[in-house]
Structure to design on (412 residues):
């Protein structure tokens, strides 16, 4: 088969023959952008005026603070047309290329930052998927007008050429990829639910609404130990008596040579990205070092609340605290730093030019903590939730990558 033939690399076996190349202009009965006019705000109105910022994750998201316009302005915008189910929306100003399909959209108008497409004789879901392909994104990039706010003209959009199979093949491709979208949406919702569950559970644990026993959890005020006795009441001490920090002046970029360094911008929620540096022996005395299983915590905004439990020995930026346990276990400390109270006091700035957490302030704040046996149970329980979150995230990323690969192979 000739390499120049317009056929996809991956295809359902019941289909054959070349795809047809057509311009968007020849395929659409509607190609417009949103309102270019100025409209007064009517906060009490039922009519919304949305923009590109409302097109998120392939959906039209409506927020409480979105602009509202008069009924008269709404009907003026739609004087010559109206949006229908199946119309496709594409962002064309600012962040270009986000897309969504119109579905039961009422009393909603858009600003000029979005364009509308109506493909009457084509499967809208197929076109929607095609708009996510690398080839189409590249076509948008070619036509982007670079200015203070990048944009694409409708005339340039209309000239983009699309490769189109038969209606039956369009429907088969759209149905298959839509099933992956459903799975991605389900995994995304599960990720949100797990995150909310963890947050709510941690609130109950650290407020002692939930206590632990060898048999599991209990809603009682006290948990029981192996002998049926209650765990001791939680004690209270200043944070500085529970943990300590290491924060020496150190710049990995100048003091390291090959690898095993962590910088602030490489510290993300729960992970640490390894940089290509390693400290030399001469820098041993000044390095901000950490050991495997120690916890790193970003102390500089906007990296506050970013943390990582190290899985190797190494060095890190001086803008990262290396936390060491004194009276609490490392496993428990990992969750203590995720509590609202810890993050609230970490957000109190030292008042410097570059806002950063103030350990002198934080270290004298009192914290309640349980026995080490109960700390272990708390850590193990929360770790099991983290495992579920991680497994779900891996499944989500795997599904997204699978779809990305299919988009590359199933379209011309």
């Amino acid at each position: 088969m000739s390499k120049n033939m317009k056929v996809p690399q991956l295809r359902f076996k019941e289909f054959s023959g070349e795809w047809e190349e057509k311009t968007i202009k020849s395929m659409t009965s509607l190609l417009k952008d949103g309102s270019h006019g100025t409209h007064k705000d009517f906060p009490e109105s039922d009519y919304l005026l949305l923009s590109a910022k409302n097109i998120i994750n392939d959906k039209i998201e409506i927020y409480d603070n979105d602009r509202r316009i008069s009924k008269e302005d709404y009907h003026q915008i739609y004087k010559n047309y109206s949006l229908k189910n199946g119309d496709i929306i594409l962002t064309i100003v600012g962040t270009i290329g986000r897309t969504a399909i119109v579905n039961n959209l009422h009393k909603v108008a858009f600003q000029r930052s979005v364009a509308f497409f109506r493909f009457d004789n084509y499967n809208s879901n197929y076109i929607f998927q095609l708009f996510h392909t690398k080839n189409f994104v590249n076509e948008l990039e070619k036509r982007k007008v670079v200015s203070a706010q990048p944009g694409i003209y409708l005339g340039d959009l209309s000239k983009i050429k699309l490769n189109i199979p038969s209606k039956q093949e369009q429907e088969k491709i759209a149905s298959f990829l839509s099933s992956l979208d459903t799975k991605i949406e389900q995994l995304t919702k599960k990720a949100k639910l797990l995150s909310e569950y963890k947050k709510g559970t941690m609130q109950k644990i650290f407020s002692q609404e939930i206590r632990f026993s060898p048999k599991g959890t209990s809603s009682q005020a006290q948990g029981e130990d192996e002998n049926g006795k209650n765990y001791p009441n939680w004690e209270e001490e200043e944070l500085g008596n529970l943990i300590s920090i290491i924060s020496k002046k150190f710049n990995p970029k100048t003091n390291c040579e090959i690898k095993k360094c962590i910088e602030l911008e490489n510290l993300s929620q729960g992970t640490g990205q390894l940089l290509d540096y390693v400290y030399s022996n001469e820098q041993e005395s000044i390095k901000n070092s950490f050991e495997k299983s120690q916890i790193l915590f970003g102390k500089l905004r906007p990296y506050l609340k970013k943390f990582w439990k190290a899985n190797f020995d190494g060095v890190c930026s001086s803008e990262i605290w290396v936390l060491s346990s004194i009276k609490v276990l490392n496993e428990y400390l990992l969750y203590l730093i995720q509590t609202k109270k810890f993050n609230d006091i970490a957000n109190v700035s030292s008042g410097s030019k570059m806002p950063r957490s103030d350990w002198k302030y934080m270290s004298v704040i009192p914290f309640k903590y349980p026995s080490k046996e109960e700390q272990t149970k708390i850590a193990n329980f929360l770790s099991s939730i983290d495992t579920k979150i991680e497994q779900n995230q891996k499944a989500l990323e795997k599904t997204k990558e699978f779809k990305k690969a299919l988009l590359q192979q199933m379209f011309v």
About this structure: Residues 28 and 119 are 5 Å apart (CA to CA). The chain has a mean pLDDT of 85.
